[in-house]
Amino acid sequence: MSNSLNKTTATCPGPINLGAGNRRSFLRTGLAGFATLSLPQIFRLQALNRVHAAEGAPSGREKNAVIMVWKPGGCSHIDSYDPKPEATSEYRGPFETIPTKVPGLSFTELLPRQAAIAHRFTVLRSMAQTAGGHPAGSMQLLSGDPDTRDKPKPRLPDWMSVANYVRAQAGPRQNPLPSYVGINPPLEYNGPAYLGDAYSPFVVHGNPNLPSFSVPNIGLSDANEVQRLGRRSSLRQRLDTLERSFDQARELAALDEFESRAMTLLTNPKTKEAFDLSKEDDKIRDRYGRNAWGQQLLLARRLIEAGVDVLTTSLNGPLCGRVQNWDDHAVNHHCFDAMKFRSAVYDQAISALIEDIFERGLDKRVLVVVTGEFGRTPKISYAASTGAGDASAPAGTIQPGRDHWPRAFSNIWAGGGIDAGRFIGATDKRGEDSIQRICGPGDFLATIYHHLGIDAANTLIKDFNGRPTPIVDHGKPIPELIG
After folding, report:
1. pLDDT at residue number 478
2. What's the CA dihedral at 50, 51, 56, 61 to 10 degrees?
3. Model pTM?
4. In angstroms, how far apart are the furthest CA atoms of the chain?
5. What is the pLDDT of residue 12?
6. Would you kindly state where each structural domain of the chain is located, as residue ranges?
7. How far apart are the C-alpha atoms of 136 and 131, rounded to whole Å?
8. Torsion of CA 139, 145, 146, 150, to 10 degrees
9. Residue 67: pLDDT above 70?
10. pLDDT in the model for residue 424
11. pLDDT for residue 360 is more than 90
12. Which runs of consecutive H residues, i.e. helices, occur in 268-394?
């Protein structure tokens, strides 16, 4: 098992002929990375894809949305949502257990804010999958790929890209904002696969808490620049029309659609406002926490409220500790110091997001899911640190750690019209195995798709070879998590 989250490297595929005869094959090439496509190219590909989509393509309800908060590396379930105070010291960890607002449900002392609002969400304590590595574990949970081997790139599209694709088949969006946005999103091991990069997220990088934070090319405010872009757009349309004079009229109309969508995103003042955290009251910003994670989740709520359908964000970086993720092997972190180091910021940001969703009346439409790819080993291990830093002792110091553990872990679900204030499933007395109401990746995915109005059992999408492929071939929506 690896000791850190490996990064995959995107490569540029080079120029591709978009002549009429090559467009269908181009849509199936699966470009290597979102960074290789400009925003207009993404809109153009989506427009083309709609032209060539099969009749009767699935469509999703437009009113429901999902925010997924990802904890890369995997959070210890025993040190958070599933404490085992009766276990021996080699398993239970040092943290006290505290009651929550829900009778019979306890957390560790690291999560007092979430304990106080536990009636607002549901804890799923019996998640399980079969992959012990970060890549395969992420692919299992986010795309349903049952393979336990770590692959360099996904074979199946993740649920976020699928949802973006399904919504796109219903026709052009009326909202100027992108359907799918990722704020420092989990892209290391996931992506659109055979759907192509047209269905990757609109990615926002950086720390939203910094005064210098901005999103490039969103909501231009310079009137002269807007006019210049408009003239260039008009010229490109005329040149494109000459080049495509023999195209079918239906395809020509679809190709032209991308230009107005890109221009709207670049010039519409509403798009700039949606990304502008300075529009929020200072008390709200303080409530989430004046740090990267708190402001990421506030921006997530702001964008979802403005009409984004799918939003993903990763809680990683310096707030996690020395290796900047939740991968608390002893060689990376002192696992208990790491949990303490990040817990206050995590607890505040998550509780603020959940409370805000309810207070703004978004709790029926918006589903919030907080998870990582797996849990951590119930039995504590010990090894020498590989370096000093936040939550890690100097190199060579023996310190405790918890390793990868896919057999049992927890996640939380809020909003979505769910009858909250409960917990689902259970693990054994040491937290080693899920033993009641065991839920796997297929159930996880089917539940999210159900909220988005996507019939996971009957939705097929053609893969690279043109074969109709189910978006989930196992699992069913979890009844307690259906609004």
Report:
1. 98
2. 30
3. 0.83
4. 76
5. 30
6. 59-213+277-481
7. 6
8. -40
9. yes
10. 97
11. yes
12. 269-275, 282-288, 292-306, 335-359
